[in-house]
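The pair is quoted verbatim underneath.

:::
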Amino acid sequence: MSENDTPIGELAADGAADCAPTDPACPFRDIVAAALEAKGETLRSFSERAVDPETGKRIPHNQLPKLAKGEGYRRERWLVGAVAAATGRPLAEVQAAASEEWTGLRVGDLLQASTPETTIVVAYQSGTTLDDLPVLKERLRALGLGDIRVVSTGGSDSQS
């Protein structure tokens, strides 16, 4: 290991991750697995790109299979940046995948209220509907977002 290699660590009671191979709710695992399969390159060359731009920490090549299989590893923030750098995916996309896998909460613009100037990101449980969020809609109005066009996943629109 080089001085920038950062072991993912042993499975810890607090902050540990583990996904069964058939578990569909492991989007972070799936991003890593898909990238490793699609790139057709060695783990070492993939690892060379798996450097978190914020901390400089790098995922060692021998730890990548753990991430791709969703096996136990410590959930650490720098892993998200390193995976985004290695896969070329937007950081926000990898952050959302890690959030869903690590906390069980989805992250996104459930209200579809983002504009080019303002991004609205909400963490919510799977199955949450717009009707479950009246306080959030009211807070957005208070922030001066005015008339928000709310589009539900069911396809019907409403003005808020």
Notes: Confidence is low (pLDDT under 50) at residues 9-16, 150-160.
